[in-house]
Write a structure and sequence with these properties.
- The protein is an alpha/beta fold and 227 residues long.
- It has helices at residues 14-26, 37-46, 63-73, 87-95, 108-119, 155-166, 174-182, 192-204, and strands spanning 6-10, 30-34, 51-55, 78-82, 100-103, 129-132, 135-138, 144-146, 149-151, 172-173, 213-216, 220-223.
- The strands form 3 sheets. It has a 5-stranded parallel beta sheet with strand order 2-1-3-4-5, with helices on both faces.
- A hairpin with a 3-residue loop joins strand 11 (213-216) and strand 12 (220-223).
- Helix 2 (37-46) runs parallel beside helix 3 and helix 6 packs across helix 8 (192-204).
- It is elongated, with a radius of gyration of 20 Å.
- The structure holds calcium ion.
């Protein structure tokens, strides 16, 4: 298994920092967090990140200065997070050596797309086929396969199964599944996750095969070896 890529998040706003930490961890990144610029620089020195997400407005040393110092020390990709109104911050960030910027508030998918673009030079591309026990998911044909039997997936089924395959043995909370497959707009009251898990179970267990997608009561689901 490849070493997870390390992302350093420097952001003083608790809500955003935690949102980024949670979301990026589930995407398989190793996430370090800092609440201020100096801490960020210390972490970057002690545990060199593969990418830095850097807020501009920080207490103490601001993001522009942090960016300048990081750039002076190496060529780590830097993605700045800037406030909507502060166009001059974007210019200053790019002048200080940032590779890209993202305007708050941003969609998580947009953030991931930017991160992937910046990491392309170090990150191996997405695998052609995910494998877990005897289950396979082909990212090209978007078909599943278990014990040699192929099955088709609808768009949402595919997204959900890919989320499981990217995070084997990891409990996926309902919240994360909503965020990643259905987006923010979806109400948490719906039983849509249960419905789609049932579809995936029907397809992956056809012919009486053992269960791979398990319910974690009160929390969510996990892709795990049969018990
Ligand atoms: Ca801030």
């Amino acid at each position: 298994m490849a070493t997870p890529l390390r992302v350093l998040v420097v952001e003083d706003e608790d809500r955003i920092r935690q949102f980024l930490q949670r979301g990026l961890s589930y995407e398989g990144y190793r996430v370090d967090v800092a609440e201020d610029g100096q801490t960020g620089l210390d972490i970057a020195r002690d545990h060199p990140p593969d990418l830095v997400l850097l807020d501009v407005m920080l207490p103490g040393i601001d993001g522009i200065e942090v960016c300048r110092r990081l750039r002076a020390a190496g060529d780590v990709p830097i993605l700045m997070l800037t406030a909507k109104e502060a166009i001059e911050d974007r210019v200053a960030g790019l002048d200080a050596g940032a590779d890209d910027y993202l305007v708050k508030p941003f969609a998580f998918d947009e953030l991931l797309a930017r991160i992937r673009a910046l990491l392309r030079r170090v990150q191996p591309s997405k695998p052609d086929v995910y494998r877990f026990v005897d289950l396979e998911l082909d990212t090209g044909t978007r078909q599943g396969k278990r014990s040699g039997r192929l099955f088709d997936l609808t768009a949402k089924e595919y997204e959900l199964l890919e989320l499981f395959m990217r995070n084997p043995r990891r409990v996926l909370t309902r919240e994360i599944i909503y965020d990643r497959v259905w987006g923010y707009d979806f109400g948490g009251e719906s039983n849509i996750i249960e419905v789609y898990v049932r579809y995936l179970r029907q397809k992956t267990e056809a012919g009486g095969l053992t269960r791979l997608i398990h319910t974690v009561r009160g929390i969510g689901y996990v892709l795990r070896e049969p018990e």
